[in-house]
Amino acid sequence: MLKVQWAFVVFLSLLLASCTEDPELDEPADGEQESAFSTGKADDFLGSCEREHILLLVNDPSSDSDRLVDVGLHRRAANNIVTFRAGPDGELATEDDAYFRAVEEIDDIYFVGPVAMQQLTGAIADYCQDQPRREVDTVFSPQPYFDSHINRVVEMIDGAERSIDMAMYSLSDNRAFDALADAVERGVEIRVLFDSANGDHLNTAGSRSARLEDLGADVRYINRIMHHKFAIIDGPQDELLQASQARFFSGSANLSFGAATRYDENVTFHRGDAPLVLKMQREFNHLWENSRDLEWNEDLTYFETLPIAADMIPPKEGLEVLLTSENFETTFSSRWGAGFRPLPFSEVVADRLVELIEEADSSIYVAAGFLRSRPVSEALLQRWQEDPDLDIQIYLDQSEYISQWYHNSQLRDLDDCLEDAGENERDIYNCRERGFIFSYQLLDAGIPVRFKNYSYRWHYSYALQMHHKYMIFDRNTVATGSYNFSNNAEQNTMENVVIYRDSFYPEVVNGFVANFDAIWETGRAENIFDDILEEVSTADEIELIFEPAAFTWEEVTELRQLIRQRCSEVDSEEYRRFPENNRTCTAN
After folding, report:
1. What are phi and psi of 302, to 5 degrees?
2. What are phi and psi of 332, to 5 degrees?
3. Residue 396: helix, strand or coil by DSSP?
4. What is the greatest pairwise CA distance in the chain?
5. Which residue from 33, 67, 290, 555 lies 20 to 30 Å from 131 (Cα-Cα)?
6. CA dist 278 → 150, 321, 361 (Å)
């Protein structure tokens, strides 16, 4: 295979390096034009694991010539690889560094051929032979506490040896706190990006953020909502290859008792998935570098880890990560410090979800607490209008139920807002993206929509929430993460969506498909709707909190009307303001 021609400066650098006499240029070595892959493909003798780990080794900022020689590569190949990697300025770990996206590109380097490729393969052999391979599975809530995602998270923390990087919206579970404390005692370095710290820094004493810092975890916050729910255990702190056996989890669930035992949630756990870990470590590093200090435990000092450029990460078929941080630019002020500012009109996650909706052939399933994204909702409506045979099913939390009257009121408010906006592009955008609830518009178009119904009036103290945030396309692709389907998630919060395809993650995709099939039918085989209607019709003391079930809009409407008929007090100011104190209602 002909070698690629490089830029003139790089060519001269490599030529000079190749011609320089060096006593360490020992055989075996490759000829200048030798190629390891006569067909141009690595499939002949390299598996996906070998290709991935060779890229991790050579793309690492710390992989200078000496390191590559130390792991077994001949000196001439090592010099030329590093010369290419260093870019025009000749220095590694600078902005002009170049990275390899495939092992064939390494083979294109002068004096890199079959010998060098075999040497690189030997250097990473342990990662593909002797160490545990890729593991992935999803835990769905609600579960008994000791079968829940919390138990798995605690086990992961207990197994940490070097580091824990956690980005979390809510952390209230005491076992998780205790596990983090034990990890610090073992010498594990812990960094936490914690949404609560954004408020706790104003009154820190006694807060959860202070408790984390008291046990030895360094806590920081950002000037936006930190809505991620992920952690990286023993991740790539010093070199890229550490990502190979790092453990990682992410999903919809916070580290709380309610998320484990009461709500519909999901958390996916990974081990040995370096590209995913590197993408999420890069996100953590980006947020950490632009965060603010809690300023509580003065013994804790700010530190950064290995910088990760996007092109360092080996490409991986069947994996895509979407991050709302791409909707923001970084800022700094002498008064407030580092921060993030939204880029007008930017909605990177919604844009990609719209593409997936448009590409769907047979089915689209949505399980979410919220559906308030105009691009996503309008794309669903458009696909339904184009193909009424497309199997679309949408399962939402009961908080997304609205009456026809409320829907019409939304439309009037939108019209008034747009009239006031005139031709101002930003004002028009704000009018269209300010929390419009789309459930009625979708079901009015004929799309099947169901609501997880569990009470007459929502309150966090007893809510059994539908807290999933996922979409399934054609039963073979899942998009899931912390991202609520709303403009607020794009323009005010830090979120993630991981896209899994069954070509590489069949166990993940199959798990989500089975979960949706189950929750879509929640309580219907048991006739919970009829049982609740019967009880409300006959009881002297009417229960306002129910066994959860999947209700249609018509069923929710019928039940609420019946409750109001039998107990007019249910809509009194007392009941509206304090639903947590008024869980039953005496019949008229």
Report:
1. -65, 135
2. -155, 135
3. strand
4. 100
5. 67
6. 23, 11, 32
The DSSP bridge partners found for residue 264 are: 466
106: left (phi over 0), alpha (psi -120 to 50) or beta: alpha
Q: Say which DSSP state 142 is in.
A: S
DSSP code string of 475-506: TTEEEEES--EEHHHHHTEE-EEEEEETTT-H
Helix or strand holding residue 417 (H, E): helix 404-421
Q: Which domains does the chain have, with CATH numbers?
A: 8-129 (no CATH), 136-314 (3.30.870.10), 317-402+437-588 (3.30.870.10)
Distance between CA atoms of 484 and 467, rounded to whole angstroms?
Answer: 9
pTM of the model: 0.93
How far is residue 205's CA from residue 211's CA, in Å, rounded to a whole number? Answer: 9
What stretch of H or E contains 80?
helix 75-86
Alpha helices in 266-325 (DSSP H): 274-289
Phi, psi of 470 (to 5 degrees): -140, 160
Q: In this structure, which amino acid lies at residue 54?
A: I
Tell me the C-alpha distance between 84 and 7, whole Å.
10
Q: How far apart are CA 479 and CA 471, in angstroms?
A: 5
Three-state DSSP class for 337? strand
Token pair of 566 as six digits? 């039998």
For residue 382, the Cα-to-chain-centroid distance in whole angstroms is 27
Q: Give the N- to C-terminal CA distance of the chain in Å, as an integer.
A: 87
pLDDT tens for the chain, 588 residues long, are: 334 444 444 444 444 444 444 444 455 788 888 888 865 544 457 888 999 999 999 999 999 999 999 999 999 999 999 999 999 999 998 999 999 999 999 999 999 999 999 999 999 998 888 655 689 999 999 999 999 999 999 999 999 999 999 999 999 999 999 999 999 999 999 999 999 999 999 999 999 999 999 999 999 999 999 999 999 999 999 999 999 999 999 999 999 999 999 999 999 999 999 999 999 999 999 999 999 999 999 999 999 999 999 999 999 888 899 999 999 999 999 999 999 999 999 999 999 999 999 999 999 999 999 999 999 999 999 999 999 999 999 999 999 999 999 999 999 999 999 999 999 999 999 999 988 999 999 999 999 999 999 999 999 999 999 999 999 999 999 999 999 999 999 999 999 999 999 999 999 999 999 999 999 999 999 999 999 999 999 999 999 999 999 999 999 999 999 999 999 999 999 999 999 999 999 999
Distances (CA, A) of 535 to 383, 406, 560: 40, 28, 13
Name the residue with tokens 């409750």: 563
Helix, strand and coil in the chain, % to nearest 5: 40, 20, 35
Count of beta carbons in the 10 Å neighbourhood of residue 38: 9
Q: Which long-range contacts (CB under 8 A, 24 or more apart) does 95-99 make?
A: 97/61, 97/309, 99/59, 99/309, 99/311, 99/312
DSSP letters, 200-213, are HTTS-TTSHHHHHH
